[in-house]
Specification:
Layout (H helix, E strand, L loop, with lengths): L1 H20 L8 E5 L5 H18 L8 H12 L9 E5 L7
Parallel strand pairs: 1-2
Length: about 100
């Protein structure tokens, strides 16, 4: 988990520094941090018990549907997020907050 956690922190900090570097260009840089997502690959790799274990870790007691992650990505790509930069959106069922 050490390398994984460090890489996630690096991505968040890269977004912040890139947002500063790109200031005034109209380019926005944000991070989408997703939690466990019930993709076909995840279902096959984790099996039923593994999926239940991941689901139990989140306050919402389930894994994300891929469309939920896609909706957050679409929001960041849209003009609805036009006043956001150097931000992180956690779509993880509340895991990072509790």
């Amino acid at each position: 988990m050490t390398a994984y956690s460090a890489s996630k922190a690096a991505v968040r900090n890269l977004a912040r520094t890139w947002a500063e570097d790109l200031k005034g260009t109209g380019i926005r840089v944000n991070v989408l941090s997703s939690g466990a997502t019930a993709t076909e690959l995840a279902k096959a790799a984790l099996g039923e018990e593994g999926q239940k274990a991941y689901a139990a870790m989140t306050p919402l007691q389930r894994m994300a549907d891929p469309s939920e992650i896609g909706a957050a990505a679409a929001f960041l790509a849209s003009s609805d997020s036009s006043f956001m930069t150097a931000s992180e959106i956690a779509v993880d069922g509340g895991l990072a907050q509790l």
